[in-house]
Amino acid sequence: MLINRPPQDSTYDLVVVGTGFGSLFYLKRYQELYPGARILVLERGKYHTREWQLEQGQNSEIGYTDTYQMPEGQKRWSTTIALGGGTLCWWGITPRMSPEDFKMRSNFGVGVDWPITYDELVPYYRQAEQIMMISGPNDLEGRFPGTAPYPARPHHLSTPDELLKAASPNTHFAVPSARLREPVGSRGACCSTSRCHLCPMDAKFNALNAMMDVLGAENTFVLTDAEVTHLDIQNDVVKSVTYSHDGQDFSASGDLVVLGANAIQSPYLLQKSGDTHPVLGRYLHEKLSAIFEVHLDGVDAFDGGQASTGLNYGLYDSADRSQYGAATFYTENHWGTGLRTEYGRWRQILPLFVVIEDIPQEHNGVTVGDGSAPFVDHPDWSDYAYRGLDKVKENLPDVLSGLPVESVSMAYQLVTASHVQGTMRMGEDPETSIVDKDLIHHRVRNLTCVGTSVWSSCGVANPSLTAAALSLRAANTAFASQEDPS
Ligand SMILES: Cc1cc2nc3c(=O)[nH]c(=O)nc-3n(C[C@H](O)[C@H](O)[C@H](O)COP(=O)(O)OP(=O)(O)OC[C@H]3O[C@@H](n4cnc5c(N)ncnc54)[C@H](O)[C@@H]3O)c2cc1C
Asked: Among 14, 24, 60, 234, which one is least packed by beta carbons within 10 Å?
């Protein structure tokens, strides 16, 4: 239940930090496994109702650039600080990670392997897709075994998508997404107006339209405006969690603490709490992304069923990932860079949102800085990512050969893909990683770290579905090992 002042009782079975993807999916599964458990959830942001968000045109009153510091001129990192975290602002795109993305070192000799495989995650991907009611194409089964059937049928492709699909049926697909095609319950059908961070129809999965039963559960106490500032770690155990509410400090303890305060705030919190592991905060990364424009001859675009309609793996399949980053692209159903100006041809343009994987680099990361907010230092993407961008420019015309193309050009490189990853990486070796395959801190065993902070390698997939699946798995595994300690 939502509470508006710190509770009298300060002892819980579970204390959860944050209410984004990582925290919410862990919480949901934990409640199912331990029905009577007493849980405290501490959320730094406010509860902004859907009406408030639509009126204000934003997801939170806290600007994300006010939540960290960085050297002047560097790229920014977008997050949402509010009840629901990134479930509010996200655009609902939900591809899975490919099996080979989990094994970069073994397959391509670069980066590191995840300590977990795609196959181990499949049952949890399915559960996460069910919970979010993902609409997707069943022919993705060929690339992502264990995908079909999706809970809901895919959105309409646009005319250029239909041509790309006909030319390369195994590389071009309808985008799997958490936006409903048909209304279900209080959630409406996607209006395809590309206002997805606000989602005027409430079609997109978010914490407020699909997780209020979890947040409102009887023995779960959810306090907003409660910024966790410190974890008291003694003898490798989190003894208590300190948080600030209304200018005052409070503390609470839990047998288990789940830290899901996003990939910038979580490592900072641990660093401020005295964790000096050399890898903590390191390897911050995200994809390199760019918008390309394709001028078409005689084919109109922008007649698809959602904001991004097609997902293409042509550039991904042909990439030599030992040398440069693989890429995918989305065909966009909105005209962010404008329409064509020639008479009668204004819709003969197809914008592409291209994402290229990076190799996480140790020198990029988060430190305590002056102690008032995380200091984020990420001078640039790696040469590996930029070589990937060069390959995109070279190979895109081939991949688009199913279309009547007049010209292809890069419009601009994006400042951010809005995917904050790394900083508390998962791994088998406690010397080189922060959490194990079950998301448990290697040293502090009553601390589980969730969300995209645990990414070991970048991949090309939007990360939230995988964050949800990892959390469902982590809660399940913790329960199973308690039941059967052998
Ligand atoms: C505009 C935009 C569009 C996006 N679209 C997509 C998409 O289409 N598909 C996709 O997969 N991903 C998308 N993302 C990325 C997605 O939002 C993130 O990957 C995801 O939210 C990460 O989950 P998380 O649990 O790690 O962190 P979050 O979801 O950010 O959750 C962190 C939570 O912790 C809270 N918190 C932070 N600090 C503290 C503290 N000190 N004390 C207490 N609470 C705290 C925050 O308020 C928040 O509730 C998008 C992001 C943006 C910005």
From this structure: 234
